[in-house]
Amino acid sequence: MTLSWFAIVRLGLIQMCIGAVVVLMTSTLNRLMVVELSLPALLPGFLVALHYGVQLTRPNWGYLSDIGGKRSFWVNTGMVLLVLGAILAALAIGVFEHSFAAGLILSMCAYTLIGFGVGAAGTSVLALLGSFTAPHRRAAAATITWLMMIFGIAATAGTVGALLDPYSHQKLMVIVSSIGAITVIVTMAAVWRLERGLRAQSEPAPSAGIVAGVKEVWAEPPARNFTIFVFLSMVAYFMQELILEPYSGLVFEFTPGQSTSLSGVQNGGVFVGMLAVGIMATGLRWGELRSWVILGCLGSALSLGVIVACAYVPQFISLSVAVALLGVFNGVFAVSAIGSMMALADQGKRDRVGTRMGLWGAAQAVAAAIGGLTGAIFVDLLRGVGLEAQHAFAIVFFCEAALFLYAASMARVCVIQRNIQPTTLVAGE
Q: Considering the domain boundaries, does residue 428 fall inside one?
């Protein structure tokens, strides 16, 4: 059996819950550390990088869900770990006021749990989608689940922002604990008896060990090539994450409020791009996933060139429009790449779906950390040797565009078509 539309929406609720909790760490607590506690911005940056680094364990979570045959258990376990980490991270904000060392230790433990939780829950959700989503529904399934995650991020950020003023640590703890309790309940309800109605197409994977499982997946040319593609494309995807707002301020003299609004413009574009792929690839049956992935990469590269051009030819196009364009093509790329991931997950041995998803999730997490830090470091180095800000940013944006172009060329050989049958896949295609 395959997942019904209702079941896909249920899995989307889990993605929404993950986004709702994670945004507290990357946004609310980030601001509290830097502004209210006057801690260096490097600290929350290090903690976020730590939570990405811990997600190198994604293959292990995927492997555990493979050998157990009950992915719902790992979804629930991951969400509990994620919420526990969030509560400890919020608790650490108050501890910092009395002891920096104790607050740092507690925060490191908290963000480690957050990384474990995202890895366990997120990988198992993707494994369920990859195992049981009908081929013609994969683009739509990716669109639905990721749009729901974006909704969870946006809704939580707005709600918490309204409830938290005037700030107090006690109020923070109540808000985080309440959101945590709600997300755990929603997640458990979403996976309740979900797998009972799905007919397993193979026995659970034999317990040969995580290393053997990863080696087995890595030995498959399609899985190996796609892992490299995911890593390179996601490095490109995240390179602008930490430098776009500074670029608007240093080169275009945007105010802090105007710079912050660019994030909303970009996310709005991402939403439109994802929705477009879901409607056209699934509803109208226009194009295959491979074509949409390539379009997303090429369009993202072109948009970065337009963003650079804004600094040299201001009358050409406004920065906000260029950033919105980047968001649209980023959304096209992201949702089609996720759909391709689900399509490839059950190619090869079906008892390794979770391990494949874990491997690709780990590649994405490492790429996110490397991409963001690389972009920021390169800009600082180039400005440090005397380059003007617009030239320094331009070089980094062009490097990012080059990575997207290379990812597009890789997609031609490592991303399969949406309607391909499992038995027709050959190595490298």
A: no
**Residue labelled with tokens 């689900």:** 342
Q: Count other C-beta atoms under 10 Å from residue 253's C-beta.
A: 9
Amino acid at 175: I
> What is the CB-side half-sphere exposure of residue 195 using CA atoms within 13 A?
19
Packing angle, helices 100-132 and 71-96, rounded to 10: 160
Write out pLDDT tens, residues 284-337.
567 677 889 999 999 999 999 999 999 999 888 899 999 999 999 999 998 888
d(CA 412, CA 292): 11
Collapsed DSSP state (helix, strand, coil) of residue 168: coil
Q: Based on the fold, state whether residues 288 and 350 are members of the same structural domain.
A: yes
Question: What proportions of the chain, in percent to the nearest 5, are helix, strand and coil?
Answer: 80, 0, 20
Mean pLDDT of 106-130: 91
pTM, rounded to two decimals: 0.72
Cβ(11)–Cβ(187) under 8 Å?
Answer: no
- Is the same domain home to 258 and 176? no
Instruction: Note the pLDDT tens digit of each residue in 119-136.
Output: 999 888 888 887 788 877
> In whole angstroms, how far apart are CA 6 and each of 13, 94, 218, 275?
11, 41, 33, 18
Same domain, 175 and 256: no
Max avg pLDDT among 1-5, 291-295, 401-405: 401-405
SS3 call for 229: helix
